[in-house]
Write a structure and sequence with these properties.
Chain lengths: 82, 370
C-alpha cells in the first residue's frame, strides 16, 4: 500500500527497486523527513526510509521532493502534497 | 494508481495517438531517436510503437553506459582486481559484463575480491572499514551518475581517505548525440532527449542539435503519455518547419539543470581529449577523468593499467544497432549466439540495452505467440 502515492508522478522507482543503476536515467522520488547536516532521512512512495546524501541539494528541507540516484539527491523537484 | 494514472489514462493515450496520426504526413517516414535506455525500456514495456502509425519509427540510441563501454576498459578494470590487496567495487549491473577473460562474476568465482555496491558512497565506506586494503570503485554512467562519484570523491578528500580510488569511465551524452548526427549513415528526424540526465545538465547543452543540425529535440519523461506527448511535440516542430529544444518533462527538469551538481562535477572531473565508445569509435571530449586536484584518488594514476584495446567480435553488429542503422533482430547473432543468458555484445547484457529490451518484450513475446 503506497503511503506517499503522490510521488508516483515523478516516477515509480523505489529505494529498493530502481532498475538498472548504471543507466543515466533512473532516479527515485523521495520526500525529505528530516535533515541532518549533509544527509537527510528520506521516504519513498512505499514508506521505505533511507539516509540520502544531500550535498547537491543543500537547500532541501522536510517536505521537499527529491530525486535520488545512487544514494545521492540529484534534484529537488517540488513539495510533497498530502 | 492515483498520480500515475494521469500518465497512463487510456482515454488520454488514445487521444495522443490520434493526434500523432493527424500530425504525421502519410507520405513521409519519420525516424525519431530516443537517446536514453530508460526510454527504450519504456517504449518496449508499454508497447508504445504499436500505438503509432507504421511510418513513425523509434530508433534506439546509445544511452546505456554499460553498452557503450569497450571491452578493453572492462579488462583494465578487472586487472585491478587481480592485484594483491585490492578490493574492486562495482554496480550490480556491471557484474555480468563480459571482459576478454570473463565477467566480474567469473573473476569473483576465481577468487578475485570484487564486491557489488549500490552507491559509490558504499565503496568509500568500505575503504574506511578496510584501511589495510586498496578499495577501487569502477565508475560508470552518464551525467546522472557522475555527480554521485563527484560527491564521493569530495568526501574522500575532506575525510582524508587515502586507500580509496576511482577507475573513471563516466561518459557524456551530448558528444554522443553529436557523433550520431555526424555519422554519414544516419538519417534522423528528431530526438527524444534524456530525462534525468537533464535534471543535472539542464536543456541548454542540447541547443546545438536544433541550431547546427536543424533537428527538433524534446526532453521527455518516461511514462507512456510523456513519450507520446514528446512525439507530438517533435511532429509539430517538423510540420511547422521549426527546430528547437523543448522540455516536455518540466515537472522534473529545470531549464538550467542543477548548478550544485554541475559545480561538483567541474571541481572533480575534467574532459578527456578523446574516449572510445563501443560501436561509435573514438569521440573527442566525450568522457571524464579526475581533475589534477583529485589525481591522488585516480586509479589510473595510482596503478599501472595495461591499457587494453579489444576489437569487438566481428559477427556482432553492436555498432550498427547502437547507431540505429540496424534493428536488434537484424543482427546476425541476435537470439541465436547472443542471448541475455549468454551475451556476446554488451547491448544484450544490460536490461536497458536495446537488444535485451527487444529480446524480452518483442522476440520472446512473439515466440510465445507463435
Amino acid at each position: 500500500m503506497a503511503s506517499r502515492p503522490e510521488l508516483a508522478r515523478y516516477g515509480l522507482c523505489t529505494l529498493d527497486l530502481d532498475g538498472c543503476v548504471t543507466c543515466g536515467d533512473v532516479a527515485v522520488p523521495v520526500v525529505v523527513v528530516e535533515v541532518d547536516g549533509l544527509e537527510a532521512v528520506c521516504e519513498d512512495r512505499l514508506g521505505q526510509q533511507a539516509r540520502i546524501a544531500i550535498d547537491l541539494t543543500p537547500e532541501a528541507v522536510p517536505g521537499d521532493v527529491l530525486l535520488v540516484h545512487l544514494g545521492v539527491a540529484i534534484a529537488r523537484v517540488g513539495r510533497a502534497t498530502p | 494508481m492515483k498520480f500515475v494514472d494521469e500518465f497512463r489514462d487510456p482515454r488520454l493515450i488514445r487521444a495522443a495517438a490520434e493526434e500523432i496520426r493527424r500530425l504525421a504526413d502519410p507520405d513521409r517516414h519519420y525516424r525519431i531517436m530516443e537517446v536514453c535506455g530508460g526510454h527504450t525500456h519504456s517504449i518496449y514495456r508499454h508497447g508504445i510503437q504499436n500505438l503509432l502509425p507504421p511510418n513513425i519509427e523509434f530508433i534506439h540510441g546509445p544511452g546505456c553506459p554499460v553498452c557503450v563501454l569497450p571491452m578493453g576498459r572492462v579488462d583494465d578494470g578487472l586487472s585491478l582486481a587481480e592485484r594483491p590487496g585490492v578490493i574492486l567495487t562495482a554496480f550490480g549491473d556491471m557484474m555480468r559484463v563480459p571482459g576478454t577473460r570473463g565477467s566480474p562474476l567469473e573473476y569473483q568465482a576465481r577468487g578475485a575480491d570484487i564486491r557489488m555496491v549500490y552507491s559509490p558512497l558504499d565503496a568509500l565506506k568500505l575503504a574506511q572499514e578496510n584501511p589495510d586494503r586498496q578499495v577501487v570503485f569502477f565508475a560508470i554512467g552518464f551525467e546522472t551518475t557522475a555527480p554521485s562519484t563527484a560527491v564521493t570523491l569530495m568526501r574522500a578528500k575532506a575525510l582524508g581517505v587515502k586507500n580509496f580510488s576511482v577507475f573513471c569511465n563516466h561518459v557524456l551524452i551530448v558528444p554522443a548525440i553529436r557523433a550520431i548526427l555526424d555519422s554519414p549513415d544516419m538519417r534522423l528526424d528528431g530526438f527524444i532527449g534524456p530525462g534525468h540526465v537533464s535534471t543535472v545538465i539542464g536543456c541548454r547543452p542540447y541547443q546545438f542539435v536544433a541550431r547546427d543540425y536543424g533537428k527538433p529535440i524534446v526532453i521527455s519523461g518516461f511514462e507512456p503519455l510523456d513519450i507520446l506527448q514528446s512525439t507530438i511535440m517533435i511532429l509539430r516542430q517538423l510540420r511547422e518547419g521549426r527546430a528547437e529544444v523543448e522540455n516536455q518533462y518540466s515537472r522534473v527538469v529545470p531549464w538550467n539543470g542543477n548548478p550544485a551538481a554541475l559545480r561538483a562535477m567541474a571541481e572533480v572531473f575534467e574532459l578527456r581529449p578523446y574516449f572510445e565508445w563501443r560501436g561509435l569509435g573514438f569521440i573527442s571530449q566525450s568522457a571524464l577523468k579526475l581533475s589534477a586536484a583529485y589525481a591522488e584518488w585516480d586509479a589510473e594514476v595510482r596503478f599501472e593499467l595495461p591499457g587494453v584495446r579489444v576489437t569487438d567480435p566481428k559477427a556482432a553488429q553492436c555498432g550498427e544497432v547502437l547507431k540505429g542503422v540496424l534493428r536488434p533482430d537484424q543482427c546476425k547473432l541476435f537470439a541465436r549466439d547472443c542471448t541475455p543468458e549468454h551475451p556476446v555484445g554488451a547491448l544484450m547484457v544490460s536490461s536497458e540495452g536495446a537488444c535485451a529490451a527487444y529480446y524480452h518484450y518483442v522476440h520472446r513475446v512473439g515466440a510465445v505467440g507463435r
